[in-house]
Design goal:
Helix content: 40-55%
CATH topology of the largest domain: Double Stranded RNA Binding Domain
Order of helices and strands: EEEHHEHHH
Radius of gyration: 22 Å
Shape: elongated
CATH architecture of the largest domain: 2-Layer Sandwich
Number of helices: 5
CATH class of the largest domain: Alpha Beta
Distance between the termini: 20 Å
Low-confidence stretches: none
Strand order of the largest sheet: 3-2-1-4
Length: 136
């Protein structure tokens, strides 16, 4: 299992909340209403950002061991460990809603028979795409 630890910079606000950014992950930002919330949201943001980079076949940046004074002055620096393999597995196995169209008469019969559309479509797609059972 791959673990990556990035340094998150938490910028405190006057109301006790924090803005979060990652110098090693340009474009990755988050927010937390308090320190604990900021830490949770930082893990989620970094995990999602790296997942998106993987999906786009972009190179994943190596974590820095030090940050510039400009990034750290007046801020909190917190190590954030993510688990890209586990996050990818979670995201890839999420259930997603898909709309389909059917003739009304077929839908009526299926509902009378209490058909589980999701299970039926999933099974049919696995069979149609000839996906081996070892991949499921």
């Amino acid at each position: 299992m791959l673990n990556i630890t990035y340094l998150a910079v938490l910028e405190p606000s006057t109301d006790g909340s924090y803005s979060i950014f990652f110098p090693d992950l340009p474009g990755c930002f988050s927010y937390g209403i308090d320190l604990a919330d900021a830490q949770r949201n930082a893990v989620e943001a970094a995990s999602l950002h790296v997942y998106g980079m993987e999906c786009d076949k972009e190179e994943i940046p190596a974590p820095s061991v030090t940050l510039s004074k400009e990034d750290t002055e007046g801020n909190i620096v917190m190590p954030i460990t993510i688990h890209p393999d586990l996050f990818r597995m979670k995201k890839d196995n999420e259930r997603v809603k898909t709309n389909i169209t059917l003739p009304a008469w077929l839908k009526r019969i299926a509902e009378e028979q209490k058909v589980n559309y999701s299970r039926l479509l999933e099974t049919a797609l696995i069979d149609y795409l000839q996906i081996p059972k070892s991949k499921i």
